[in-house]
């Protein structure tokens, strides 16, 4: 063979790469460079214009801020200067002319200064004078307090616009004493100009602030002169300002109370005309609340607040002449000032897109040539990535130190299943030994990164589901609500969380299925069925270990546990049982301290007995629920069960000597009652609107009343159980105290919720009862 006929495979491969780079890489690179240059120029132009617009915006807002500050100073000026002038007139005027001076000065100011609402004058003997505008016309009204104590009267005299008397009126003063008012005491104690906190007059809708000052007349009598300013005029001024297209200004104090600004009347009505409650609500005014928070963190000056994908420019500035240190907030959308930049940027972007489109068309044919190859390559890379990640997850599961420890919850299993299958929720369920109960050992919600468990489902409600699991084959259902095998499971367990698709992987033991793995909305389950099968084998081994541990623990407990004292579990009227039924002997009613009583409280929402529902339906629902729960109490050997309105109270271990099995009986009853309530409410198409709480501790018991006498219990354990129910994090959950957890942790599954402060008990831990081990 001639040497020129020999083909070097490496050289052929090198030629292919060069041809590819020449025919595909160079055009693609050119298109990318064109796009990058155009995008870079557009972004640079947009940023420069935007920064210039924002700089101009800050300058405009600063000038607006200075203007408003000047106006507010002018607004409050009559109070600052007027009190000084009035004090000088009162100190140098004869006593007989004090009231004339007050009326003349006040009338003149009221006629010429619109923001002044009224004037007060009071002395140290309790005399009081008031002058204000006549609310029914354009004249004035003077009020004088005559007399003291219960017989005191307010004498009113009305004048027209030319100061001619119109009429007089009088009404009881109701023990009014000006010397007890904040404006009087503040001025006398401070010895200088005193500003009161703003207050509302609900009848007129006026917000008033009072400036007062004390003085002494020629006769030695001490006076307090006060000017009342209406904040409504200041609100009208702020409303009239034009700040951009949608901006506005408001005045608040250092604590965030709204003093003047937009929609003051609505805010006042919502606060019940209480100025202390007139704060900026983050739900109603999120931008204003964000601006105030930025001021509290960063101080005075310009800030930027973002809300609902929009930027807002804000400025916080101090206002003079008030003791309350008011703060002026200016808020305006950034788009009001930088809108032209955005329009220019969009136009540049449009032109750039046209050029990019033309450049892209040149490379379309080249992209289509390698499209299929790239698709196959991506699929291979995806399978390789999943395979590699699967190996990592398996190594992590295998390295878990307590994987086969019966007392460990091994939450890593559900987390790994949800991660590998990209499922919204992954659950591990165990078929109990009676073959008619399915217990949720653990469920992991990937959306909320939370574990839960302890749910029990009965074969009576899920007969088709149990039959599907018993076949031992995996099932993948796209819509669990419409499949007869999973419809009831969807209604009882999935509908509340909004998931639709369901994948079932049976957990097979030596004698058949002993449980099932559920994956909800698992988008990647078709790629990892073998991984789910391996996890099912691990779960089966854990079930065997837990069973052996539970059998050994039960045998040890039966050998060492003394018989409980309460052998006769009676149910009767009253909170507990009628007198004489505690031990079967009439009249032999123990009272005193019971050292270890287990108490459970179940609280139901008003939704169950809503007045919008049919009365007969509600009564039938409540009757069925009560009968079912009372049957559970009998089966679990509880001492008492009583429904009190929307609460159900259960008691176990009511004996003179501690009953070691009371807490366990109560926990078993809690799990059974929760499952019964879930089933009944689901059949009635109601959400599981109930919460449960359990505590164990000493309580006192005794007979109350006379005819008939009722045996009652009281103590911290009863109140603590009710607090556990009211504070349960989610509906349908069982929250228990640390004492219950320490007693039952070897036989039941718990999740720690955290530390909480409980009145009269201090800081304590609480736990969520999930199920039996």
TrEMBL record:
GO terms for biological process: cyclic nucleotide biosynthetic process; intracellular signal transduction. The keyword Chloroplast does not apply. Its main location: membrane. Keywords: ATP-binding, Cell membrane, Lyase, Magnesium, Membrane, Metal-binding, Nucleotide-binding, Transmembrane, Transmembrane helix. The keyword ATP-binding applies. It is a multi-pass membrane protein. GO terms for molecular function: adenylate cyclase activity; ATP binding; metal ion binding. Residues 601-725 form the Guanylate cyclase domain. It catalyses: ATP = 3',5'-cyclic AMP + diphosphate. This is adenylate cyclase. It comes from Gluconacetobacter tumulisoli.
């Amino acid at each position: 063979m001639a040497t020129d006929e020999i083909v070097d495979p490496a050289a052929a491969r090198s030629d292919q790469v060069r041809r590819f780079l020449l025919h595909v890489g160079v055009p693609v690179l050119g298109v990318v460079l064109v796009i990058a240059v155009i995008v870079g120029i557009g972004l640079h132009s947009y940023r420069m214009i935007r920064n210039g617009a924002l700089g101009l915006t800050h300058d405009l807002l600063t000038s607006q801020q200075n203007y408003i500050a000047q106006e507010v100073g002018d607004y409050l000026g009559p109070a600052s200067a007027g009190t000084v002038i009035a004090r000088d007139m009162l100190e140098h005027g004869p006593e007989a002319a004090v009231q004339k001076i007050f009326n003349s000065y006040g009338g003149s100011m009221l006629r010429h200064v619109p923001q002044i609402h009224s004037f007060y004058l009071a002395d140290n003997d309790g005399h009081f004078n008031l002058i204000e505008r006549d609310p029914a016309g354009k004249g004035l009204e003077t009020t004088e307090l005559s007399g003291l104590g219960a017989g005191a009267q307010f004498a009113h005299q009305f004048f027209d616009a030319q100061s001619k008397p119109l009429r007089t009126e009088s009404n009881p003063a109701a023990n009014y004493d000006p010397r007890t008012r904040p404006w009087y005491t503040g001025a006398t104690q401070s010895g200088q100009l005193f500003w009161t906190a703003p207050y509302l007059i609900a009848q007129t809708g006026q917000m008033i602030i009072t400036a007062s000052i004390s003085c002494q007349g020629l006769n030695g009598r001490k006076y307090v002169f006060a000017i009342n300013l209406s904040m409504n005029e200041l609100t009208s001024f702020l409303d009239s300002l034009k700040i951009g297209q949608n901006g506005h200004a408001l005045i608040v104090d250092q604590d965030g109370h709204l003093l003047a600004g937009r929609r003051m009347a609505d805010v006042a009505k919502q606060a019940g005309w209480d100025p202390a409650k007139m704060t900026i609500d983050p739900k109603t005014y999120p931008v204003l609340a964000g601006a105030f928070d930025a001021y509290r963190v960063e101080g005075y000056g310009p800030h930027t607040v973002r809300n609902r994908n929009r930027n807002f420019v804000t400025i916080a500035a101090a206002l003079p002449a008030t003791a309350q240190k008011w703060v002026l907030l200016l808020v305006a959308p950034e788009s009001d000032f930088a809108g032209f930049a955005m329009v220019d940027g969009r136009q540049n972007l449009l032109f750039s897109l046209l050029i990019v489109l033309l450049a892209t068309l040149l490379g379309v044919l080249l992209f289509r040539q390698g499209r299929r190859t790239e698709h196959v390559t991506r699929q291979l890379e995806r399978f390789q990535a999943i395979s590699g990640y699967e190996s990592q997850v398996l190594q992590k599961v295998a390295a878990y130190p307590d994987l086969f420890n019966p007392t460990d919850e091994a939450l890593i299993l559900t987390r790994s299943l949800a991660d590998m299958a990209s499922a919204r929720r992954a659950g591990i369920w165990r078929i109990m030994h009676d073959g008619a109960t399915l217990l949720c050992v653990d469920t992991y919600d990937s959306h909320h990164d939370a574990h839960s468990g302890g749910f029990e489902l009965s074969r009576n409600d899920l007969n088709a589901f149990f039959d599907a699991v018993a076949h031992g084959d995996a099932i993948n259902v796209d819509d669990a609500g419409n499949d007869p095998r999973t419809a009831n499971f969807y209604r009882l367990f999935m509908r509340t969380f909004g998931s639709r698709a369901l994948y079932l992987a049976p957990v097979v033991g030596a004698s058949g299925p002993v449980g099932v793995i559920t994956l909800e909305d698992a988008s990647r389950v078709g790629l990892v069925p073998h991984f789910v099968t391996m996890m099912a084998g691990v779960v089966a081994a854990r079930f065997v270990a837990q069973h052996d541990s539970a059998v050994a623990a039960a045998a040890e407990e039966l050998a060492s546990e003394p018989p409980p004292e309460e052998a006769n579990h009676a149910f009767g009227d009253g909170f507990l049982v009628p007198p004489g039924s505690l031990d079967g002997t009439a009249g032999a009613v123990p009272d005193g301290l019971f050292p270890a009583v287990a108490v459970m409280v179940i609280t139901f929402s008003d939704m169950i007995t809503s007045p919008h529902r049919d009365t007969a339906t509600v009564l039938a629902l409540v009757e069925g629920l009560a009968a079912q729960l009372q049957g559970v109490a009998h089966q679990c050997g509880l001492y008492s069960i009583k429904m009190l309105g929307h609460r159900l109270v259960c008691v176990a271990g009511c004996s003179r000597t501690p009953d070691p099995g009371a807490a366990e009986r109560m926990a078993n009853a809690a799990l059974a009652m929760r499952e019964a309530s879930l089933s009944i409410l689901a059949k009635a198409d109601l959400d599981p609107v109930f919460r449960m709480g359990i505590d164990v501790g000493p309580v006192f018991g005794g007979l109350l009343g006379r005819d008939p006498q009722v045996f009652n219990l009281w103590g911290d354990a009863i109140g603590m159980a009710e607090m556990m129910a009211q504070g349960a994090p989610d509906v349908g959950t069982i929250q228990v105290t640390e004492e219950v957890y320490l007693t039952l942790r070897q036989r039941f599954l718990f999740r720690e919720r955290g530390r909480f402060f409980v009145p009269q008990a201090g800081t304590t831990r609480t736990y969520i009862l999930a199920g039996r081990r």
